Amino acid sequence: MKFRTPSADGILASLIPILSPPKPPGADARLGLRITCEAISEPGVRGGGSEVVAASQEPQGLQGRFLASQEPQAGEFQSATVPITCTSCQHQPSAPGGFGGDNIGINEANIPSAEGVLNFIALKYFKIVDPSKREERNDFLEYLKEVRQVLYVDAQTGSLIITVECSSLEILEGLWNDYCTGHLNEMAQKFLVTEDILKEFGLIEVKLTTTILEEEYIACRGYFLQHSAWDVLPINEIGLHSPRTPTRERLEEMSSDNQRLQLSIEQKNGKIRSLEYKVLELEESLGSSHLLQQNIKQKDEKVTSLNQVIQEREEKLAELENRLEDAQARNHKLTHSLKIKEDKITTLEESVETLDDLVSETDKLNLLKDEKIKALEN
Predict the structure, then answer these.
(1) Is 80 exceeded by the pLDDT of residue 216?
(2) CA-CA 20 to 30 A from 333: which of 5, 183, 326, 347?
(3) Which UniProt keyword terms apply here (predicted)?
């Protein structure tokens, strides 16, 4: 009986399934964030809806290089990006010609378009920043990175591509829970729609809606459930996986315990990051409260100053009222004195009239006397 000697290629081909390391968890656990935008310039006027597709990319992009395209896999949709050098978790590609001018996002009817607003958001808030400068960092990216563990965000004209790759089922469930409760959309609305956006386009409101496709979430969840049972097999002297032994059973138990411990650690780390983020929000709120207290203090000082002015004017008014009362009292006295004098004048006038009558009678008597004297003389 002749035995066929296997070739080297055949031996290598048979060893590849054994020697090949398992795909790292999370390699296919990618989700696409789809953001729709509605721009409102004035009551009754809407700029229409536009969509920004957030797609996933290889996590190696965090090291500074990204593929121009990649093959679509289950649970994700294909996208294309431009090569870009990564220096932080926030990036901004160079704007092409004609983009970012004075009329960015303005259509022929002179109404801001939703696509233009999204392009402006992509170029303004997803750019290269200095991570050490808090004012330059995008709070939405901070939320995704620190709380939800987003690996990379790439902004380019026409679309906003966000890579979301979960490294564990806990992280995936946390992101999905934020989406289902609306918290993810609230964070996008809070941190991406700012006063700068509204002022730039003369808008009164911009509404963002973030969507995660359920089939993509199910595909990612299925991936984690499928790979949750993978254990690292012990290696024998020739570098191959050894068969199942009691030692292997123990290693499987230890690996399972390690996985549970790792999930617990990741969950606690996620909670810690969430608490840190909440502390940051509280500190910002405290800063706002401090400013509010300063404003209230300034207003209280102004009120105190106004109260002093009012008190001074009330004192002056009281003084004027006292002077008015004194003047009225003097006027009353003068009026009374004038009345007495008028009464005296009336009495004197009556006396003068009486004297005038007496003088007239005296003149008459004197005249009669003279006439009688003349008559006696004759």
Answers:
(1) yes
(2) 347
(3) Coiled coil
